């Protein structure tokens, strides 16, 4: 149950920090008309893609802090992570702000929408360092086994966005750009709180600064997950083009279905983060795979049974509704292997098998796109949904077949071995041999 205790706060955090902020902005700008809604949709999509870049630092820091906590100094790891944050923030923010207008034009041909998108991106991309800093701070907390603090901070941020959006959009007359200002300022306020809590809870040693060894370890641990995220984003964009070939109604239904499905998919990523934290800290992930498969089944069945009722909240167009319902009712075939793949991915990531996980994921994507282009003309859009299921199943199979659970445990043990034995609060040193023989993927 320790995996569930870690995962539940992460699930709430992901829903609020990843999903809710964009929806809140959309809700408040909806009174400004269609171009405003489209602009916020595009801009938040760009920001979501930018998140994939910093995952290498945030997730890598979570893993390395988890390995060191209780067995080695954390100060050099944390300071190295902040140095990496500065480099990545600068590398994303400056080009992004300068290229905001051509970037906006990539997503829309409408001049009004493109102009509003560029206005939003000017503020949101300038605020990327704040967004990245919060991600890194959350990663440090999680590495120390604390998933509750990031959840509370994310909830507070949502409350602030709800309060600030109407003030900046309407009272100050800033429109779409006001939504960006409200979001950045809300994140800045909650970041100040997070940093205050972090400074109070993290021991510091002024003699220990950033170092190359820790930077390499952080990036080696985090880059595969960053690559996985960016690959999924690119494949998602490709799938939009594939589905769009079946007509506007099908594409609209697909978009609605994805948004509905996202709330359930966040549970998979919560399990992934929980298994990452637990594997890094203890050398075992717990029953991540069966939990992921079961969660995928539950989410898939719930979506299939509630598809028509939930879809009706988003559209009253019968053609769009039918397309969304059809998509959601085929998704259990995809969500079961996808849930298992994402959940067990945390154990692979923390045990040094992230490269194998990324390779399997990319192979699954190649199979998915190939099947989509082959089955689409034969079976219609149903062939595309079956291609998604086939790709996820192939990726999960490639991950599980060549790697035994003992191999995962051995790698996690070796990753921590150089830091000496771990000491749990109130207990003596934990035997690394005992840790190594525990099951990590039941």
UniProtKB/TrEMBL annotation:
Quick check: keyword Signal in the entry? Answer: no
Q: Which UniProt keywords apply?
A: Antiport, Cell membrane, Ion transport, Membrane, Transmembrane, Transmembrane helix, Transport
Q: Where is it localised?
A: Cell membrane
Coiled coil ranges (UniProt) are none
UniProt region (Disordered), positions on chain: 416-442
Task: Assign the protein's first listed, main location to one coarse class.
Answer: membrane
Transmembrane regions listed in the UniProt entry: 12-30, 36-65, 77-99, 111-132, 153-173, 229-248, 291-310, 330-350, 357-376, 382-401
Membrane-related topology note? Multi-pass membrane protein
Report the sequence similarity comment from the record: Belongs to the multi antimicrobial extrusion (MATE) (TC 2.A.66.1) family.
Q: What does it do?
A: Multidrug efflux pump.
Which PANTHER family does this one have? FMN_FAD EXPORTER YEEO-RELATED, MULTIDRUG RESISTANCE PROTEIN NORM-RELATED
Question: What name is this protein filed under?
Answer: Probable multidrug resistance protein NorM
Q: Which organism is it from?
A: Streptosporangium jomthongense
Task: Please name the taxonomic classification of the source.
Answer: Bacteria, Bacillati, Actinomycetota, Actinomycetes, Streptosporangiales
